[in-house]
Design brief:
The protein is mainly beta. About 5% of the residues lie in helices and about 50% in strands. The strands form five sheets. An eight-stranded mixed sheet has the order 1-3-6-5-4-7-10-2.
Length: about 250
């Protein structure tokens, strides 16, 4: 896989989906490997017009997990609005999930043209299937930790037909029992404007702060300086209160 394609996948966040051209709506979730623990949380993203659904979860759009008749409400812990057509919600099950059950993600009151967003492509079976997870036994209570301080790598700008992919990349090495999320806090040093979003770490231990061709958590202005710091939370909600040092860098533009 080329670096360009990999960066695009990272920048649209957690989906594994790269659009040839930008769609008008989409919903995707994390974790994406289909397996969760009994106390796992769920991260959900709304792209473009689907952002309005994420903002109204459990108001206009009840959200829950359902498996073999067991219905578990998902409580919205926090919502984060990205700077480029992306909104994220952190969801916590209202009760412990049952080992061995497979739970399907459901959102009530969706319009017919929105319901297809609650499915994903299974590349192995070559078909669409519901967004779902099988629960493995165990409770994770271990807090994630940094193995070393994050370091700035480089900035990246790639121009595509529908717009640029842009990011500042950082190496982050962590240790935890579950999948680790990185809470990124980005500050524009000229305006003091701050924005926060949870990102993932790729297989090369890189976190990309920016956006892809169609959407993303962060955007940049030309000829500005920024600073960013990171803290850790795993998918079971275990948080490390220790933040990294602030890292300053120039806008990728």
């Amino acid at each position: 896989m080329t670096k360009t394609i990999l960066n695009l996948i990272i920048a649209i966040l957690f989906t594994g989906q790269a659009f040839a051209k930008c769609a008008s709506s989409a919903i995707w979730t994390y974790p994406e490997n289909g397996v969760i623990k009994q106390n796992s949380w769920i991260i959900i993203h709304g792209y473009a017009s689907s952002q309005e659904i994420i903002k109204s979860l459990n108001k206009d759009y009840p959200i829950y997990l359902e498996g073999d008749g067991h219905k578990v409400k998902l409580v919205v812990k926090n919502t984060y609005k990205g700077l480029f057509r992306l909104t994220q919600a952190i969801l916590v099950p209202s009760e412990k999930l049952i080992t061995g059950k497979t739970y399907i993600l459901k959102i009530d009151n969706l319009k017919e043209d929105q319901k297809s967003n609650l499915s994903k492509w299974n590349s192995k079976l070559r078909k669409e299937e519901p967004i779902q997870w099988k629960v493995e036994n165990g409770i994770d209570s271990e807090k994630p930790r940094f193995i070393n301080q994050p370091e700035f790598v480089d900035t990246n700008v790639e121009v595509y037909g529908c717009g640029p992919e842009i990011s500042a990349d950082f190496t982050i090495k962590t240790q935890d029992e579950s999948q680790v999320l990185v809470k990124a806090e980005l500050v524009d040093l000229k305006t003091g404007e701050s924005n926060t979003f949870f990102l993932t770490i790729d297989e090369n231990e890189i976190v990309s702060v920016g956006h892809g061709m169609c959407s993303g958590a962060f955007s940049f202005r030309d000829s500005r300086k920024y600073k960013v710091r990171f803290s850790l939370m795993d998918i079971c909600g275990n948080q490390n209160s220790e933040s990294s040092k602030w890292l300053t860098f120039d806008s990728p533009y």
